[in-house]
Design brief:
2 helices, Glucose Permease (Domain IIA), mainly beta, 5-stranded mixed β-sheet
Length: 249
């Protein structure tokens, strides 16, 4: 345990950078991992319609707020490039000890919620929770199960590769990750995961947020970007043709 950190206790009602946590994805599970790129992090969006945002050049974005962090892009040290899209079935791990308090089974939109407490809570408003979206639970995972820090309880969801000649598009393989405090406003004003885990871990580079028509990063603009897994994708609501997808070994 990091002596500068402390475990979560039942009296905690807000997430803190002082908590002893681990990331939900292990860097060792990604080839030649360098650092995470904050491609689609926590932002308030534009709930009233299209807007323009300066990130390297003018991008036209759409969509509302995104009170989460998407583990979707990372810097590949060997290739000196950014990879957008994670490996299918990548293991997802508990950030701290807790209990499974919700499994929303909805294919691509499947999510799992963990409550971080010493015993199964009667009321989620009394406990810190973490939420993991676009995942598939491991076999046998059920409501009330206890999970330990670092335990694999899910894998990333991935669409089947669209058949050639069809009009089907796949969706980006990524983890939609939320943290929620334990008060009544927990889903209205949740904390930014970058503020809890630290910018050094999650935000060394920033990318175009949700709703932008193409991928851009605001540092090292000329670093190549490779989109993984599919030739035809839906990214932020846009159909993307990807002639040479990055293929995980």
């Amino acid at each position: 345990m990091n002596p500068a950190k402390r475990p979560i206790v039942d009296e905690d009602h807000e997430w803190s950078p002082d908590h002893e946590l681990r990331l939900p994805i292990d860097a060792q599970d990604l080839p030649d991992f360098g650092h995470w790129v904050n491609w689609n992090g926590y932002h308030y969006g534009n709930p009233t319609g299209p807007h323009e945002q300066q990130i390297g050049d003018i991008l036209h974005a759409k969509g509302g707020p995104h009170f989460a962090y998407d583990f979707a892009a990372y810097f590949n040290q060997k290739m000196r490039s950014i990879i957008l899209g994670l490996p299918p079935k990548l293991p997802i791990r508990a950030i701290a000890d807790g209990f499974v308090v919700d499994i929303l089974d909805a294919s691509y939109l499947t999510s799992i919620t963990l409550a971080h407490s010493e015993k199964m809570p009667n009321d989620l408003r009394e406990r810190l929770t973490s939420d993991y979206g676009h995942v598939v639970p491991v076999d046998g995972l059920a409501f009330g199960d206890r999970v330990k820090t670092g335990e694999v309880f899910a894998h990333l969801f991935a669409d089947e590769v669209p058949e050639e000649g069809t009009d089907k598009f796949a969706r980006l393989v990524h983890l939609h990750f939320n943290l929620f405090d334990s008060d009544n406003s927990r889903r209205l004003n949740p904390p930014d995961p970058v503020n809890i885990f630290g910018a050094d871990l999650l935000s060394k580079q920033k990318g175009a947020p949700q709703g932008c028509s193409h991928f851009t990063v605001d540092q090292q603009i000329n670093v190549p970007v490779f989109i993984a897994n599919y030739r035809k994708l839906i990214i932020n609501g846009f159909e993307v043709k990807n002639a040479n997808p990055f293929v995980y070994g």
